[in-house]
Every structure is written in C-alpha cells, then in structure tokens.
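Researcher: Structure for this, please.
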Amino acid sequence: MRLILLGVIITSYLFSPVFCAEKHSKVKHSPSIEALYTSLDPKSIMENLTFYKLYPNSPFGKKAYKRAFRLLTQGKKSLVNIDLPKIDISILVNMVQKKPLEDIEEISEKTLTSIEEIAKDLGNRRLVGHDFWTKEELLASHPDDIDLSRALFLSEFDYDLSKKKKIRYYEASIDLMALQILARLPQRPTDEQKIRKINDFIFHQMQFRFPPHSLYAKNIDTYTFLPSVIDNRKGVCLGVSLLYQCIAQRLNLKLQSITPPGHIYVRYKKGEKIINIETTARGIDPPTEQYLGIETLGLQERNRKELIGLAFMNQASVFWHKDDYKKAVSLYEKALDFIEDDHLLQELYAYNLLFIGDEKGKEILKSLKDKPIRYLLSEKKLLTDFLDGKTDIEGIKAIFMHVDETRESIAQKKEALEKVLEKYPDFQAGLLQLASTHLQLLEEKKALKRLKKCFYLSPKEPIINYYLSIIFVERTDFKKAWDHFLLLESSLKNYNLFSKPLKNYRRMLMQKSPLFSLGSEKKNREIAEI
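Model: Predicted structure, token format:
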C-alpha cells in the first residue's frame, strides 16, 4: 500500500503544474494529503522532500520538510542556518526520475555549497586528497590519502578546472546518496550494518544494474566512468564497484577492491571475517572460491590509484576495438600513471604500440617474458608465441578481435584465426582461441581437432587438458576424460592449486566413472615425465 501511495506522490509531482511551473497555491488540509503523508517512509529523504515540494503550504508538507531536513543534517545544530527551501532540490528529483540533469549550470551555487556544508562531516572530507585539484597533487599522493571520487572525476575530466562545477555536482550526488544511507543507520553502526544499507540503497532503492551485453561490449567506458554510471543507473563490475567505494569512503567503511582475471569486486575483511560484495549481482556474498579459476594463482588487491588506472584501461579497450590504436596507446599511458608493474597493462600497451609501428612494444614484451608469473598461469601464452616467432601482429589482432553474441561475429573471428594459423600452424594461443570459437559455434569435432594439436605442442598445459577432459565427458569417453583430468591435476600440484571448480569437476567424474580413475594414474605419470 505504501509503495502505491508513493507512486501517486511521485507521479503527481512529475506531471503536476507545481513541478512544471513551480507555482504553488495554498493547499487546504484534506484527509487524502494526510493519508499520503502517513504513507511516507520516515527515513527517506527523497520521499519527504518530494512530498514537501508538492504540498509546501500544507501542514503535512511542512512536517515532511522538517523530517527531510533532520535526516539530511543528522540533527546537527551547526547546520540549523541552512535554508533548505531556497535550495534547488533538482538533484534529488533527478534521482527519483532516474535521468541525468541536462544542464549542470541550472544548479545554483547556493545549492552546491549548501549540500557541501551538510556533507562536510562525511569520511572523505578528512582525506588530504579531498583538496586536490591538479594532476601533480594526485600523482604525488599516497593511495590511502586519495579521495576516490575527487580523483576519478579529475582524471575523467582531464584536470580541466572549467569543469569544476560539474565535478562538484557529481560529488554532491554521491554525498546525497551517503546521507540517505546514514539516515537509515543507527547512531553507531557496525561495518556490516553499513554494508547492508549500501546494498539496499544501490541495488534495490536506486536499482543500479549490470547493462545488457549488447550495450556494454562496445561501450564499456560508458558503463565504467562514474558520471555515466550515476546518470544511467547502469554499470559494469568496475563502474559500480567504483561508486560503491566512493560511498564507503564517505561512511568511514574500509573496503578492498579485488581483481580476479577479467573482473573486479569489493571485499570487506576484518580479522577472519570476509564479506565479498558482488556488484554485478546486487551485492550478494559469493564464496571466495567462486572467483578462482583453474589457473588462478591469486586474487589481486588494487589500491585507490590503481582503480583510476583500471578505468582508463577499460576506455582504451573501446578504442582498440575501433582500430584507433593511437588513442588506445594514449589511454594506456594514462593508466600507467596510476598502475605500476602490472603485467596485463604493460602487455596490452605493448601490443598497441606494435600496431602503430612502434618497436618499443617489442622491448616491453621482452622485459615481461622473464618476469615471474603472479596471478594467472596462462598470462604469457600470447606473448611467448609472438616473441618465439609463432605468430605476428595480425595473429595478436585476431586473438583480441571483438565478438558479440551473434553467430556472425564469432564466425568472423574464426575465419581470422584460421587465416593466421595457415601461416603459423604452431600458434598455440591461436589454436586455443580457435577451439573456443568452434565450441561456441557447436562444432565440437573441429574443436577437438584443434585441442589435440594444442596437446601435442604442450601436453602439460592445464587449460588444454581441462577442455579435452570436458569434451571427452560429453562424448562419454571417460577413460580419456580421466587421462586428461589427472594430467591437469598433476600440473597444478606444482603450484599448489586445486580450486573449488576443479574439486567439483573431479566429484562429477567420480560419480560418472569411478573405475577409470585408477587405470589412468599410470598413464598420467608417464606423460608427466615428458
């Protein structure tokens, strides 16, 4: 019932002459207005301000205003002089409407300074980085001193101080989110209470969502950079994780940012207590094992500076897929300002240098070849193939060729890989990718042929044995499935790896075919000695 009445309030407001013309006539007290007021969430700043805006001269409108003011200011006496009725509340209205403000200049200086005054006690205000306005200050700072939202907006707007008002507008938007969350928390909340309320606000009240694949695949930067994420209420894992961290800083909640291969999520850790916050699935807490693939050596934690660099890496990938390699190079260089000694970033940067004819790219790849593997066993496959003369620049481009959910795009990548492999038949990364495209096109027989060639070239390679085992299970050839699984298991023991997915796979094999496991042990030892 409360949600229905709230819908009446918001709909009435958005389409009423009050909203359109800002002309308020005196509203007489009526039972319907009282009923609407009673239905309001007493802890919702937005609902109470919207009600006040609709019925400013009603006794209940004035009550709603007082309640909203008390929630915003947390009852602080030092803020009693702020004249809320004179503040343009369009920021909050935009949050209700879920659409961006078309013209930032519509926001008055009075509104911004008042919100900044109300938010002055939020946790990010205590950080040195909250006063930064230049690139030099940002780069010279320690990651722990960075106000993440200020750093992100500065870097995203290229340190252009003519955009200062826009930066302040988006910071004020995040401030208001934090203030609304605070309004729902007890006086001395625990960290876990803060996490629950942030989750409820972001994923249920504001309904931030992961965008459809067809949208984010080609425009991942749109769903990474904070202004777009706030405006669209949609974001990829990095975009929503950045927003989550910005809110957490304001609430004095210390969280970690963890990057499994190709992903990022937020984690709370205190002593033995760990809460994983999956921002692509409404903040659920998956077990850590879920983030470990069969080749994952470890989960990398990112500091605040590195988070800024990751945003530029995502943007660079968009221009890479558009074949604008010069722009991609410039964005990777921006990322390098914030991320040091990162294998993946340097490798991607090197490839794009090669695409524009800069031989510096090859020197970077040579320097990476002998560095120890830190997080992923397969991270050097392509690099090694290129330096060993098993592929060329076109092979690298084929590996990273963009694929969407259409069969046509997968077929195009398959053709590009086949063309490269005609020239370089021992291109292992290419063979593995081609096998993957065959599987996507339901061409299992062709995939098996490519994987067998991969196995001939690298019989101890974990991922190859994993795929072969899966295919042989599908073919009910359990003896060969066990052969390749046990070889995979033996290879991973050298790295002390045995992830939960692998344990589950072994359990499934035992259920389907327990007899063949013993018979495969001997063959497994023989291959391991090669």
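Researcher: Any notable elements?
Model: The chain is about 60% helix and 5% strand. Strands lie at 256-259, 265-270, 273-277, 300-302.
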